[in-house]
Write a structure and sequence with these properties.
alpha/beta, Rossmann fold, 2 domains, 13 strands, globular, ABC transporter substrate-binding protein, ABC_Transporter_SBP
Length: 359
């Protein structure tokens, strides 16, 4: 078993599954390399070996039969890969109707082991042989989140424990992430582990098609002409904003959409700043980063609240984006957590910022 990868922020920090050995797709051209895992994924062969952020290996001699996912994002990936029938439980379940129609019915049939983090005893006693972890350390957040099992306890329970490296390894990257290669490798690796490599290849191809279309449309825009962009993590708290830095998946999403993350000069994944720092950046556009509330009506209410806060708060109501009403209502998860939705968010942002140029 591997050593656990730990980190924390005051936001709900979301960390997920591993690709192969190598770097995590930064902007320096050093891609994650899935190595033998990628080749095995395409051939459907075993054994398959994956690594965590520290390079520790986990080997699979066959596809897992009983999988538990820690939240809706990893559950959605398994459903899209066609491995949903192997999922025996999840934490942070998706609200009814929040996933695409074809996946929603499947998702609603998955037993809910925890409305938030799955209790330790319930996870260890679930009968799973694989746990896909959306959380590394909660960073001492407390609040009834529960104790996480140790690696020894996972081993005793017969559960392999893996993460998505594109998010879990964010704080340890050596360079900014400006593309989705790490996310693509997560999908490839998960396809290899579950024996759904062909579908993983199809999902990655679909993501690349969308991102390439945006790049073709706005890629020649000079950096000085690209609008500045602030991801407002409303759910992380408004007293002191938590921003996405240049190692977070969101930085790649924003960059690929033809925008400039106003906190791209921050090395790491997340950071707490002061509102004076946001005011100094004075962004052209603000994304209202609201986490899924479980229904369209509840999500709309949350977006409305986030927008109202910015418009009425003395520190933010004078921001250029606020005065112009330049808000994007795009959920946090599809921006900051690995998934095929990252490419959709690239497309959605670009359509708003470059009207008429992106289909």
């Amino acid at each position: 078993m591997r050593s656990r990868v730990w980190w924390g922020t005051t936001a709900v920090v979301l960390g997920l599954l591993m690709a192969g050995c190598g770097n995590d797709g930064g902007g320096d051209g050093n891609k994650d390399t899935a190595g033998d895992t990628a080749a095995k994924s395409l051939s459907g062969g075993y054994p398959v070996t994956v690594t965590d952020c520290m390079g520790a290996k986990t080997a699979f001699s066959a596809a897992p039969r009983k999988i538990v996912t820690s939240n809706a994002s990893s559950l959605e990936l398994l459903l899209r890969l066609g491995a949903g029938d192997k999922v025996i439980g999840t934490g942070f379940p998706p609200g009814k109707g929040t996933l695409p129609a074809a996946l929603d019915a499947q998702a609603q049939r998955v037993p809910v082991l925890g409305r938030t983090v799955i209790p330790k005893e319930k996870l260890l006693g679930s009968g799973a042989d694989l746990y896909i972890d959306t959380f590394a350390s909660m960073g001492g957040m407390g609040g009834g989140m529960g104790d996480a099992p140790t690696e020894a306890e996972y081993k005793t329970a017969g559960i392999e424990h893996i993460y998505l490296k594109s998010t879990a390894c964010a704080s340890t990257r050596k360079s900014p992430v400006t593309d989705l290669s790490a996310v693509e490798n997560d999908i490839t690796s998960l396809g290899a582990v579950t024996g759904t490599g062909a579908k993983a290849k199809e999902l990655v191809a679909g993501m690349r098609e969308k991102v390439d279309a945006v790049r073709d449309a706005v890629g020649d825009t000079a950096d000085s002409k690209r609008p500045t962009y602030f991801f407002f993590d409303y759910d992380a708290g408004t007293k002191q904003p938590t921003v996405v830095c240049n190692r977070q998946v969101a930085n790649a999403v924003i960059t690929l959409a033809g925008a400039r993350n106003v906190f791209a000069d921050c090395d790491g994944d997340y950071k707490q700043v002061g509102w004076e720092d946001v005011i100094a950046k004075n962004p052209d556009w603000i994304q209202l980063g609201v986490r899924d509330r479980g229904s369209e009506a509840a999500n709309k209410k949350a977006f409305d609240e986030a927008e109202k806060w910015l418009k009425t708060n003395a520190a933010t109501k004078g921001l250029k984006a606020v005065e112009a009403g330049h808000f994007l209502r795009i959920g946090s998860e599809r921006t900051t957590i690995a998934g095929v939705g990252n490419a959709d968010t690239v497309q959605a942002i670009a359509k708003t910022l470059y009207p008429g140029k992106v289909d």
